[in-house]
Write a structure and sequence with these properties.
126 residues, alpha+beta, Ribosomal Protein L22, Chain A, three-stranded antiparallel beta sheet, flat
């Protein structure tokens, strides 16, 4: 006997992918997430492919994972998918020390962040 499975948190026409502990500040990651919010899945992948930001490649991988989850786990139509949500959360912050002049020290913060991408299937327009 195990515990009963929890109900699905997403709607039937949604799928998600999460990337945790990504070594970039949430503020910088949110700039990339804002670029793809609300776009069609194919257009969002094209946007990330040609983005010059370093983190765009990792965001593209998460988006492709969400699309694969939608196709394989939830049997959604890939051509009708769009980025429903792309939100960024704050992770841990590593604190480091850098020696400075005259015996002083400066604190260096190395932030991490979490990325969640939810893709949804567009309803058919009549």
């Amino acid at each position: 006997m195990g515990k009963p499975s929890s109900p699905r948190k997403r709607a039937d026409n949604e799928a998600q992918a999460v990337l945790r502990n990504l070594r970039i500040s949430p503020q910088k990651l949110n700039l990339v997430a804002t670029m793809i919010r609300g776009l069609d899945a194919n257009k969002a992948i094209a946007t990330l492919s040609f983005s010059r930001r370093r983190i765009a490649g990792d965001v593209k991988k998460v988006l492709q994972s969400a699309i694969a989850n939608a196709e394989n786990n939830h049997s959604l139509d890939v051509d009708r998918l769009y980025v429903k949500e792309a939100h960024v959360g704050k992770g841990i912050v590593m604190k480091r020390f850098k020696a400075r002049a005259r015996g002083r020290g400066a604190r260096i913060l190395k932030p991490f962040s979490h990325l969640t991408i939810i893709v949804g299937e567009k309803e058919e327009q009549v």
